TrEMBL record:
It comes from Flexistipes sinusarabici. The lineage of its organism: Bacteria, Pseudomonadati, Deferribacterota, Deferribacteres, Deferribacterales. This is ATP-binding cassette domain-containing protein. SUPFAM superfamilies: P-loop containing nucleoside triphosphate hydrolases (SSF52540). It holds the Pfam family ABC_tran. The keyword Ion transport does not apply.
Length: 251
């Protein structure tokens, strides 16, 4: 299968502070690829570099065989048309309805007429099981529904690659499972490649095809492969990570 993202010898550093180094991985077209690791290990920072939002790196990031540095110089706007992002703390705009939140990127990037944008927004809402909620405001809906509406906004422009940062954090297990099912369905139905940043192991094991595990003290990838490969790794750092997660979830 073809790689849609390739990362080579990536080092991310803010001033003297090295966040990640020796990062090498590929994301295959059409897969659900998870980035996992403890809090502070650099998951969000890595994601922000993959989409060109931060540029404190050495090494190479290729998106569809194009060097991100060239994309930034030559065609960043058209690149932004091809990706969708739901940020970790990326709230919907509270003064706009759900439909208007989704219409925003449509009208900004595609210059769709308002009527067309409104119809597309309704369709995107139905894709995330929020059919008929077009005129609700974010404050009128539950946390799980907000997460789904953010995903609807992220897929507004039919992205080839969808980046989701902690789409299930703060949700109860049942609602998290619903979001996982939704992500899986979007991946199958739309063929979208999905980069999923999470520390929800349920999500990782039920929906991801492959993953990397970041370690904050080693500042690098300590395991990669299928969820099965990573879980069964004999590496001490990897086992310690799963022990920590188990301790934090078993009450
Ligand atoms: N713009 C920035 N400038 C300097 N340091 C930063 C910047 N953004 C993040 N950092 C640092 O990078 C490190 C990794 O942060 P990051 O937000 O990527 O962690 P994370 O793995 O996403 O954690 P969490 O699971 O809590 O979301 C942290 O030490 C953070 O303080
Ligand atoms: Mg984060």
């Amino acid at each position: 299968m073809e790689n849609i993202i390739e990362v080579r010898s990536l080092k991310i550093q803010f001033g003297e502070n090295i966040i990640l180094k020796d990062i090498n991985f590929n994301v295959k077209k059409g897969e659900i690829f998870a980035i996992i690791g403890d809090s502070g290990s650099g998951k969000t920072v890595l994601l922000k570099h993959l989409i060109g939002l931060l540029e404190s790196y050495n090494g190479e990031i290729y998106l569809e065989n194009n060097d991100l540095k060239n994309i930034k110089k030559e065609s960043y706007d058209s690149f932004l048309n091809e990706i969708g992002v739901a940020f970790q703390y990326g709230a919907l705009l509270g003064s706009l309805t759900l439909a208007e939140n989704i219409m925003l990127p449509l009208m900004e990037y595609k210059t769709d007429s308002e009527a067309v944008a409104r119809r597309i927004a309704a369709w995107k809402l139905s894709l995330v099981d929020l059919e008929g909620f077009d005129n609700y405001y974010p404050s009128d809906i539950s946390g799980g529904m907000k997460k789904r509406a953010s995903i609807a906004r992220a897929i507004a422009l039919n992205p080839k690659i969808l980046f989701l940062d902690e789409p299930t954090s703060g949700l109860d297990p049942i609602t998290s499972t619903e979001i996982d099912n939704l992500i899986k369905r979007l991946n199958k139905r739309l063929g979208t490649t999905i980069i999923l940043v999470t520390h929800d192991l349920e999500s990782v094991f039920s929906i991801s095809d492959s993953l990397i595990l970041l370690d904050g003290s080693k500042k690098t990838i300590v395991a990669k492969g299928t969820p099965f490969d990573v879980f069964n790794s004999s590496d001490r750092n990897v086992q310690k990570f799963f022990e920590r997660i188990k301790k934090s979830t078993v009450k």
